[in-house]
């Protein structure tokens, strides 16, 4: 049989399960008639929701003739996008250079290298802002092409085309609230646009960190670094999440639900529970953006 008739690893991206929580918040939800559902994006082949935009940005750039296999791609990343781009670059034949702050988890760096990516670590003190500036400088020096997840419309576009429609179909159009961690903002922007077209009454809720909290995957950007893809009109409200609350919810998700997820996913669930406490007869979906195995070295899970 011709191997081209079989699916490839690219075909395994998307169409992730949507599952109901059974214990966390169950008693209050029963009283209120609410259900909380998690979209298991860790089931994507590189382990996160970022698999979708990583492939989208490369494919669309190829279609426009902006890049071709063999070229060097550059991206500043806090982790998941880097892993997804490293996978996508391996699939489609690119050299991938990833720039990330030095304080991010060792599992993420090791996974990127496993896919063949080259890493440039930047000072912790500079954060993602420094990494983004360095990526732009490297592009100006002709060292490669920056896909720029923060400004690239092909990021939210893929969530408009796939994630949003999946949620609508999986809930039978009953979704009333969508809760997502806000980092690059591609997920919340693209999903919001689709859901609002289907039903303008769907509430879009973004999870952001409290002042002083460091939650991987959730950011509150300085105005000058606010992602260009972000449109505030796409988000109805934001919920501030504390680091301790997100980390404890991370452990609870694993112990009480059997969902081994990352800290930003747990932060989104914490925000979803705050929403659930204020509404009735609601179908609340939150994004389980990645898996917990890339956070083992952070100490969030008991040794």
Structural class: alpha/beta
Kindly provide the radius of gyration, computed on alpha-carbon positions and rounded to a whole number of angstroms. 19 Å
Mean pLDDT: 94
Q: What's the overall geometry?
A: globular
The low-confidence runs, each spanning 5 or more residues with pLDDT under 50, are none
Q: What is the CATH level 1 assignment of the largest domain?
A: Alpha Beta
Helix content: 25-40%
The main pleated sheet reads as: 6 strands, mixed
Provide a count of the helices. Answer: 9
Domains, number: 2
CATH structural architecture of the largest domain: 3-Layer(aba) Sandwich
Beta-sheet strand percentage? 15-25%
Distance between the termini: 48 Å
- Strands, count: 10
Helix/strand order: EHEHEHEHEHEHEHEEHHE
Structure explained in plain terms:
Keywords: Amino-acid biosynthesis, Cysteine biosynthesis, Pyridoxal phosphate, Transferase. Its EC number is 2.5.1.47. Pyridoxal 5'-phosphate binds at residues 80, 183-187, 264. The chain is of the alpha/beta class and 303 residues long. It folds into 2 domains: 9-47 and 155-288, 3-Layer(aba) Sandwich (Rossmann fold); 50-146, Rossmann fold (3-Layer(aba) Sandwich). Helices cover 38% and strands 17% of the residues. The protein has 9 helices and 10 strands. The protein has helices at residues 26-32, 51-63, 80-92, 106-114, 127-140, 154-170, 186-198, 243-257, 263-276, and strands spanning 18-20, 35-40, 72-76, 95-101, 118-122, 145-146, 177-181, 203-209, 237-241, 283-288. The chain has a 6-stranded mixed sheet with strand order 1-2-10-7-8-9. Strand 4 (95-101), helix 4 (106-114) and strand 5 form a beta-alpha-beta unit. Helix 6 crosses helix 7. The longest helix is centred in the middle third of the chain and has 17 residues, at 154-170. The model has no long low-confidence stretch (mean pLDDT 94).
């Amino acid at each position: 049989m011709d191997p081209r008739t079989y699916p490839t690893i690219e075909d395994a991206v998307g169409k992730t399960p949507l599952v109901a929580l059974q214990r966390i918040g169950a008693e209050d939800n029963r009283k209120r008639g609410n259900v909380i559902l998690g979209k298991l994006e860790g089931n994507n082949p590189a382990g996160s929701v970022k698999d979708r935009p990583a492939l989208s940005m490369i494919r669309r750039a190829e279609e426009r003739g902006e890049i071709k296999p063999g070229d060097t791609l550059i991206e500043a990343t806090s982790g998941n996008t880097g892993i997804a781009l490293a996978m996508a670059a391996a699939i489609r034949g690119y050299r991938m250079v990833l720039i990330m702050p030095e304080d991010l988890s060792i599992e993420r760096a090791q996974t990127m290298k496993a896919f063949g990516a080259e890493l440039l670590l930047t000072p912790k003190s500079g954060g993602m802002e420094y990494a983004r500036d360095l990526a732009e400088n490297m592009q100006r020096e002709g060292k490669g092409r920056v896909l720029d997840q923060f400004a690239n419309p092909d990021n939210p576009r893929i969530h408009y085309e796939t994630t949003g429609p999946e949620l609508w179909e999986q809930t039978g159009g009953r979704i009333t609230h969508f809760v997502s961690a806000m980092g690059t903002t591609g997920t919340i922007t693209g999903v919001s646009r689709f859901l609002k077209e289907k039903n303008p009454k769907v509430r879009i809720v973004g999870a952001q960190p409290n002042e002083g909290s460091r939650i991987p995957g959730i950011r509150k950007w300085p105005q000058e670094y606010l992602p260009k893809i972000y449109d505030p009109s796409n988000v109805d409200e934001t919920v501030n999440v504390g680091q301790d609350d997100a980390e404890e919810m991370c452990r609870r998700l694993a112990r009480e639900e059997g969902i081994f997820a990352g800290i930003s996913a747990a932060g989104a669930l914490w925000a979803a529970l705050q929403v659930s406490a204020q509404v009735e007869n609601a179908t609340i979906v939150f994004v389980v953006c990645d898996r917990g195995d890339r956070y083992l070295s952070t100490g969030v899970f008991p040794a």
